[in-house]
Amino acid sequence: MNTNTQFLTWVFFDNTDELLNLSTEKVTKLEPQVAQLLKLFIYSNGELLTRDAIVNHIWPNIVVEHNSLYQLLTKLRRLLSDNPKQPRIIKTIPKKGYQFIADTQPYTPQKTNETSNKKKIVTQLSWWKLAVLPVVIACGSAIAFYSQNTTKTPQPKYKMSDLSYDLGLEYNVDAHKTKDLIAYIKNFNDLVFSNKQGVILNTIKFPSRIHHPSWHSELDLISFWQYYQDKCILHVYKSSGQAIHRSKGQKCTHTRASSWQSSSQLTINLANGAHFKPFNYDLHTGNSLELPVILHDGDTFQHSIIAWQGKSYYLITSADHKSRLITLDGTVHMQWEHPITMLTYDPKRQTIISNNSDKHHTLIATSRDGQQQIIANAVQGIFTDLSVDLTGDIYTAVETWQVNIRDKDELPIFSTTSIEYLPVSNLLGETAFMSKRSGVCEVYLYSEDQVKQLSYNQGYEYVNHIEWQPQLNLLLTNRDKNILLYDRQGKIMQFLPDQISTITQLGWHTNEQVWVYDTQTLSTYNLTGQRLNNFTLHVDALLYNNQSAQWLVFDDYTLYTVNDLSHLTNRDNWVPINTFSKQQYNQHRNFKLRDNTLYWLSSWSAKDYIWQLSLEEASVSLIKSDELIWHYDIAKDGSLNIAKMEAIEGDIKKLSLIDPQ
């Protein structure tokens, strides 16, 4: 029987999963798993609940990582304003479990108040995540640096405090160097201005996703990006909300924070495809000019920052995954032995603060003479943004999340706090997928209600593709430029194809042959790595239909069929079957074929869309749109499974510098 339960100043309505705060008369609609957890605690009658008991109740018959319960518990404690260090409601019993310690009683309000209380504002929980930028997980620990004329600095000490503690996602924080201002993004579309104590001063809402606010070092001017359709728009505002500048839309896939050179000149960082490029942008003219950063073979540009003496420096990642900070003349000012994915300049101590090599759980400061010091460790979650003002205080975002691969009934097949993606099922009901839980991307197999790890790797190698063999005995994947084959026990074969650049697509041509495409050449190989065919080909995307023995070619918003491999280089042999809209075609990826139906994923205004096209009828239909759909899968019965980031929490933290004595 449903009951309404009161404890302290809270009332839980378990028939509607609503939580009433009697002191504020505010009603909050709980997420299903949060409601389940609270219900379990309330009905436990104060008994100790072990971790296993809670996990089995909330996630029955599902593999769940250790951190999933912690995140759910953290969310519930925040809703209840319950400090885990001085608990009034939920007490942690070290190494044993958790106990509900608040007294409970049935809630029987006066009739005149019950209706009004239930009609109070319902606070919707925000639980979506950022895209946009690729999450790079790095392994390794050694760091080497090049430097000049820097004296030894004392070990800094910091005190961490929360500037935001609301449910939902706060991220992309930037602190003004000289003024009492910070700015950050909340729940994708809101630009929030606050002082450096966390008091909100102003909020500006936008109709589509915004990213990467960046303050001018002295003026009340802030730049940030807005994703609109297939373009990115640069805005400049004042903290009052006054719009100063809006650029023309530039076609792009990703952005990073800009750096101010002057009151009218910025270095902007854009990617239209796989790699970023730096540009000088003029606010007066709206013109941009690509900067001539010196890159070696295999190098990729990552980011630009303003550092020593107010000069511009450029972060480069090499083919062997090392990072270096250079100026336009090619001089190397700092080097790391692992990938750097976020960094900022500390003007007080004249150091670079960046991620370590441990999945963004640690921040380090590095001086130009190679000294390295640990700044802070994230107890739970990872650091995702960095900013430092002139006093040496650091402002950062710490994020946690859960990733679910969900079935047609929205139930999770697999739940984790790691990065799960690229699920691909076969007609036997088995699902292979990738995970970055171990620091690098590994291959897992979900079969007969069990999850099995197939690969074990070290280093910085990443996986971008996976496909079942037509006869379902093998899995085909890549690891950087290498091709790997797995059976149900693990790796059985690996070879390096003779491709010019990074693999963009691959697949099975027959049960004994695979094809590999790198935007310039299409090659086929046997399973020992011997190249059988090689063609020069420049198209937007490519797919082979094993069922019809035809190639599907995507080029210039049109889908073609080609009957033979040798005919791919002659466009006269291409037969058009469908023309796509810009929304259907923009950033199209993750192509899948099932029963002569084509599926794919696209993005529009930084939102994700899953489409399907019957190759027999040549008709396109939208089957799913949502925020942060990482990947999707077509299940054995033809239903849609989705791997998406959920239950995201992000908070703005302040690391206040305590000067050493």
UniProtKB/TrEMBL annotation:
OmpR/PhoB-type domain span: 2-102
Q: List the keywords (alphabetical).
A: DNA-binding, Membrane, Transmembrane, Transmembrane helix
Q: Which domain of life is it from?
A: Bacteria
Q: Where are the transmembrane segments?
A: 127-146
Pfam families on file:
Trans_reg_C
Q: Which InterPro entries match?
A: OmpR/PhoB-type_DNA-bd (IPR001867), Sig_transdc_resp-reg_C-effctor (IPR016032), WH-like_DNA-bd_sf (IPR036388)
Gene Ontology biological process terms, A to Z: phosphorelay signal transduction system; regulation of DNA-templated transcription
Give any GO molecular function from the UniProt entry.
Answer: DNA binding
User: Which sequence positions fall in the DNA-binding region?
Assistant: 2-102
Q: What is this protein called?
A: OmpR/PhoB-type domain-containing protein
Source organism (scientific name): Pseudoalteromonas citrea
